[in-house]
UniProtKB/TrEMBL annotation, chain A:
It comes from the Bacteria. Residues 77-259 form the ABC transmembrane type-1 domain. InterPro entries: MetI-like, MetI-like_sf, PhnE/PtxC. The gene is phnE. The lineage of its organism: Bacteria, Pseudomonadati, Pseudomonadota, Gammaproteobacteria, Pseudomonadales. It comes from Marinobacter salinisoli. SUPFAM superfamilies: MetI-like (SSF161098). Pfam families: BPD_transp_1. The chain crosses the membrane at residues 20-40, 81-101, 214-232, 238-257. Belongs to the binding-protein-dependent transport system permease family. The keyword Transport applies. It is found in: Cell membrane. Keywords: Cell membrane, Membrane, Transmembrane, Transmembrane helix, Transport. It is a multi-pass membrane protein. This is Phosphonate ABC transporter, permease protein PhnE.
UniProtKB/TrEMBL annotation, chain B:
SUPFAM superfamilies: MetI-like. It is found in: Cell membrane. Gene3D superfamilies: MetI-like. Its main location: membrane. The chain crosses the membrane at residues 21-42, 84-107, 136-156, 248-267. PROSITE patterns: ABC_TM1. Belongs to the binding-protein-dependent transport system permease family. It is a multi-pass membrane protein. This is Phosphonate ABC transporter, permease protein PhnE. Residues 80-264 form the ABC transmembrane type-1 domain. It comes from Marinobacter salinisoli. Pfam families: BPD_transp_1. Keywords: Cell membrane, Membrane, Transmembrane, Transmembrane helix, Transport.
Amino acid sequence: MTDTVQLKRWRRPPMIKRTWLRALVWVGVPLYVALSLGSMEVNWARVIDGLPRAKEFILSFSSPDFTSRWNDIYEGIYESLVMAFASTVVGILISVPIGLGAARNLAPTPVYLVCRGIIALSRALQEIIVAILMVAIFGFGPFAGFLTLAFATIGFFAKLLAERIEDVSKSQSEAIRATGASWSQWVLYGIHPQVFPRFIGLSMYRLDINFRESAVLGIVGAGGIGATLNTAFDRYEFDTAAAIILIIIALVLMAEYTSSWLRVKVQ
Amino acid sequence: MAVKFLTDDTKKWQRHDLKTSLMIWSGWLAGLVLFVLCWQIISEATTWFFVFDAPRIAEDIFTRAMPPRWEYINELWEPLWDTFNIATIGTGIAILFGVPMAFLTANNTTPSRYIIRPLCMVFIVASRSINSLIWALLTVAILGPGVLAGVVAISLRSIGFFAKLIYEAIEEIDTTPVEAIKATGASPLQVMVYAVWPQVKAIFVGVAVFRWDVNIRHSTVLGLVGAGGIGLQLSSSLNTLAWPQVSLIILAILLTVIFSEAISARIRAHIMNK
């Protein structure tokens, strides 16, 4: 009589626990990839034609051309920065009341619903599409871009601000209330100190996003560096494009470092 | 907390002392001045006549655009499928490149702290600073117009996003399991698979689903610069001033975006509850 010892190897637990879902993923994903790649029309001759250009583009980063289009680049970057700053300020000014209204612990239900509706609308509409409409209505130029970015800021800022307000510690805000504070005093002394560091962090983050976005609005005519960049690519002037991209990267990095420095300071 | 001494020797509570208050007020003043300057520059570049005329123009466009040309939807299914593919395949490619790059970048898993990590960092910064529409300008110039350019643009933008968020997650992992696995004599690859990966798995899924949702949004407009998807139809309808088609396309984009956000929110909520 022999005891058969079943040796069981340990296996890693699968990422998806339900067997049918796992099977579906294993079958569905390759099927989907095959289908989508099959429906993709690729002009390989054109791709091969373009490869030297890819090389040229990468090489142009070693010799970016800042000088020959400097005036256009300067004006574009300047306009982008101006648009980003102005729209962040206005966007935040509008967001604060909407954010207060969209916080469930502060606002009565009708106000809450209206404010949440505004936020949802602003988040669902994409910047570029808003920019197209703004350009059609207000004409070409940075004003359309400014409106677009301010509108986009509302959805982002008011939502995150409202979520932060909903998270505030009750004990502090109730202590202020217990002293007989009015609604505005309650918000100013009970809510504001708890929310402020996050507020500064979010503003810097949004400024950064608005600058990045302002770099593309020019493609649809809403001001900023995008128009210059678009022209540079259209003419295959890769060295100018490389220069613009390097400036954008430098500015974004600068904004990121400043904002993390400021956030540490405020907290 | 600061206290202010009044003339009659009583004390009054204040939120900030004099120095902090001055600093706060000068900060606000500097911001205000900067804003006024910016506003002036924008105002100079604006034709105010058009702005004052805007309500009339907006009403005019709205009446032209309504009702949407519903029968045009039949020409939109294919571009919508392309849009979905650009976002999904683009996200997939970005995962294939972004995850290994995260392991190469994270301080505790990188094979070389002085060569590979900085190189990856440069790529991550470049990839993240540049909007996918700008990447699309580039890929269209190189690969020619079409869906492929869109896929490559989306993945170029997303690789840096994945790599950054995942390498930060890897740097924050608990080292105990790593050492336990190492103590069994595991190879570096086995350490990654059995000790590091399980700890960042959940973050990875959350980030991937979130990025897919963002990419759906972005891929709807890539067509404006020729990179495939429904943006192509939008651009040609705009150029021919076919406003009833524009309104239908915007409606279709809106629904797609809401749909993808709902899916991504559900999956993320599911992961969080685990």
